Inverse folding.
């Protein structure tokens, strides 16, 4: 270290009120840096975002987390498409080495905080699920797992680990199945769902219609997301990559059947994806009648055939019958809202103009709801999906001086 340079972590002495540290660094965050953060008892949260451990040394075999550390919240988020990109670029060998290094770090950190962990966000492929299944997690309230595969052995470990998390409030498991594997089941039988008693938020990527968890959640559930992962509309631009992944989108009939087995009376927010069939209207009627407290909905609706018409005003009217609805995020599979809009700025502007022309029709329907405040329509841009937002006229008038 050169003269005059302050070693990393020394500045934390001067900020005793800092509770959270977030990293985003190319190649990963070394154990030396993490260890420095863990030396400070006031650091209770560490987040590492899109900075996978690829160019840093493995943690020393003697590495431990000091007893004085109060780390309770740990988040490690990696790029959604990294395995597919690795396959396409024929870098699977390097990726496997990265997984091994990643596993070493996650084993060391996650398993050391089992008794005090409150929130964990982890990649499902390298999370130490097998070891987590043998430990108790008495304070864990939030668990989020994402990844591109979850084989039967990992799924069994996950089910066992969940049974040791009696106070879980929020569970998110988003896995993109491929290789012909069925979407994982988080619960085999309703008798195994004791850990669900306090669950308030449930997110499942590509849910399995036979998953017993969907008939075991209780009256406390206020958020439900039965979604795709990664978002299906991204497959349009990555056709070659998406061929390596399965996309078992529910039909509206399946979605209705699954929702019908859940107590949804307390839901305030929901995120649903389905492919249309004859039960679509019944599904939307169900939401209006069975979810009286629903305030925000995100709906991704895909046509059964590219030639099918999109009855978007009928859909808007059905959604507008939800009494307390305040916001709707809609992706109704309009071809002019995404067709090559990610390829250059000209097409993106065309797609945005198409949404702007259609938006007033939506707003005219939704503003009949006394509580409605915000409409968003999906635009697939060069940087990824984004929402074009629109407000009813009364909202702007109410806010004007």
């Amino acid at each position: 270290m050169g003269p005059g340079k302050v070693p990393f972590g020394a500045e934390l002495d001067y900020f005793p009120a800092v509770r959270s540290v977030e990293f985003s660094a190319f190649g990963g965050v070394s154990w030396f840096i993490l260890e420095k953060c863990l030396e400070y008892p006031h650091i209770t949260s560490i987040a590492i975002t899109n900075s996978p451990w690829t160019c840093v040394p493995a943690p020393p075999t003697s590495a431990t987390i000091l007893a004085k550390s109060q780390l309770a919240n740990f988040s490690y988020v990696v790029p959604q498409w990294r395995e597919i990109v690795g396959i396409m670029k024929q870098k699977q060998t390097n990726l496997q080495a990265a997984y091994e290094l990643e596993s070493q770090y996650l084993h060391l950190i996650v398993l050391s905080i089992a008794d005090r962990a409150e929130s964990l966000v982890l990649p499902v492929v390298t999370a130490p699920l097998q070891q987590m299944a043998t430990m108790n997690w008495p304070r864990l309230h939030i668990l989020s797992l994402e990844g591109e595969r979850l084989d039967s052995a990992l799924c069994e470990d996950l089910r066992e680990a969940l049974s040791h998390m009696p106070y879980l409030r929020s569970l998110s498991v988003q896995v993109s199945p491929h290789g012909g594997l069925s979407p994982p089941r988080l619960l085999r039988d309703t008798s195994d769902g004791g850990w669900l008693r306090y669950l308030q938020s449930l997110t499942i990527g590509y849910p399995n219609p036979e998953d017993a968890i969907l008939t075991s959640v209780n009256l406390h559930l206020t958020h439900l997301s039965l979604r795709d992962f990664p978002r299906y509309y991204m497959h349009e631009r990555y056709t070659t990559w998406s061929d390596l992944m399965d996309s078992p989108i529910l039909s509206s009939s399946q979605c209705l059947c699954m929702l019908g087995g859940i107590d949804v009376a307390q839901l305030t927010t929901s995120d649903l994806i389905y492919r249309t069939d004859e039960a679509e209207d019944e599904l939307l009627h169900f939401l209006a009648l069975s979810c009286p407290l629903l305030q925000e909905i995100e709906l991704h609706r895909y046509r059964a055939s590219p030639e099918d018409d999109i009855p978007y005003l009928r859909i808007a009217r059905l959604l507008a019958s939800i009494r307390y609805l305040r916001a709707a995020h809609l992706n109704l599979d309009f071809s002019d809202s995404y067709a090559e809009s990610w390829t250059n700025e000209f097409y993106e502007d065309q797609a945005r103009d198409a949404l702007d022309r259609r938006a007033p029709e939506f707003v005219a329907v939704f503003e009949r709801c006394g509580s409605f405040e915000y409409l968003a329509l999906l635009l697939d841009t060069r940087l990824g999906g984004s929402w074009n937002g629109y407000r009813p006229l009364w909202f702007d008038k109410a806010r004007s001086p």
About this structure: The radius of gyration is 23 Å. Residues 74 and 231 are 25 Å apart (CA to CA). DSSP finds eleven helices and 13 strands in the chain. The chain has a mean pLDDT of 86.
